[in-house]
Amino acid sequence: MSDLYFIDKCRIRFEPFLQKFLIGTTEDFRPNVLGNSSVAILQLIHKGYTLDSIVEIFKEKYGETCINDVVNYFNKLVQKGHLTKEKPLKQYIDFTRTNALSDNYYFYAPDRVQLEITRSCNMKCDHCYHPGTDSQQEMMDLEMIKKMIDEFSEQGVFVIQLSGGEPFLHPDIGKIVDYIYDKHMAVQIFTNANFLDNYLTHDFVGKVMEFIISLDGDEEFHDKFRSLKGAYAKTLENTKQVLKLGAKVKISYSLVEDNMKYVQEAHDLLVSLGVDSFVCGVPVPIGNAKDIDYTVEKYRKLQIFVSEFYEKNNVETTNRKEGYQFYEKLPLEFSCSAGKAFLYISTDYDVFPCPFFAQHNFKLYNMFDGEDHVAIWHDSPLLKEFRDVRISSTKGCTDCDTCKYWCRACVYNLTGKINGAPTFCYLSKGDINES
To answer: Which stretches of 324-421 are DSSP H helices?
Structure first.
């Protein structure tokens, strides 16, 4: 074990907001916090120390009792493929420390970025926040995508999400996934799965950290909801096939009044097939969903249904299961990561805090406008609005940690203000108001 090893298949950076080092791999939904000993070992490996020399350094500092821990940790890194004898291609590893961001509620760089690689879609869904188009022209260019990925790689981004439209209609999606994977970033794909059968190979599936597949009821309702006969059958079959290849699959069930009665059956079926998670959520009232007859009371009714469904099926909410508890104790306000740890890039290469705010008055910049994007991330007055939202300004929310203070897009589209109170909260009984 005295041979020289190199760090591979992972990305490391210091996050000033947390005062912690983060490590992310191609298999992680979000990066994990590194302990002090882990940081020290990885720093020494990065500097070219062998295991024998690392053991001696730790033994001198902590005594003989630490030797087994160091060797076991080293072996674990080798087994996971994080250490290799072959020097990897350039990747993002940054052990430098930056001053803390004081009380500013955002990360020094996004941990995730979503690319709308195409607006083309084979469906016309009743609830879609960003209705697709039949046009094959509205797609990101492969070379432009590579340039963006290079930029985000340099910034230390951990996860690239691919969305649309339907991302599998992009002719270069295989090359896009390869390029992201080779940069040691995780790939997440939002899809209706109708074209997934063209990519059912171990090589492709193995490079995708997670497929988020939409399914919204029984066959009759799903096909009507998505305006495409046969959509349900195709989605279900390709979900089965990708699961056979060992893929991680999350089902996204968009809840409206008319499909509440199908959710339990859909959940039971998909769990029996082996999906990793089943998320049931109410569509944000934008795009096509604006035509849904939402009122505060109706929205609250749907949220109550979701809460009871999760409790009945012992399902942890997305916020609890996959939220920022990975980063230890963060303020509740941070759970809406729009403009704090997340950015969205439209097919036009315009940048927004999140896809639910993809409208002109929330545009931050264009990826190819020549501006200093890092400076905008830190200094944008618009992003400051998102980062300044505090629970302390909202009566009734201070001591509650159930919903993590709501999606800001839901609040904005139902109250008209980014920092508005979640008046539709299903726990509030109507008593959530701005104080």
So the answer is: 373-379, 381-387, 408-415
In 3D space, the residue among 105, 57, 152, 120 whose CA is nearest the CA of residue 344 turns out to be 152
Report the alpha-carbon distance of residue 78 to residue 7 in Å, rounded.
9
Alpha-carbon distance of 113 to 227, in angstroms, equals 29
435/416 Cα distance (integer angstroms):
17
Structure-model confidence comparison of residues 127 and 273, the more confident one:
273
CA–CA gap between residue 212 and residue 276 (Å, rounded):
10
Say how far residue 401 (Cα) sits from the centre of its chain: 21
Helices 408-415 and 296-312: crossing angle in degrees, nearest 10, is 150
Q: Which residues contact 175 (CB under 8 A, 6 or more apart)?
A: 142
Lowest mean pLDDT among 179-188, 273-282, 310-319: 310-319
Amino acid type, 4: L
| 246 backbone φψ class: left, alpha, beta (φ>0; ψ -120 to 50) | left
Two tokens, residue 67: 């030797």
User: Which residue has tokens 């969205």?
Assistant: 344
pLDDT band of 238, cuts 50, 70, 90:
very high
Percent of the chain clearing pLDDT 90 (strictly above) = 58
pTM, rounded to two decimals: 0.92
Nearest alpha-carbon partner for 253 in 183, 332, 310, 325: 310
d(CA 394, CA 401): 13
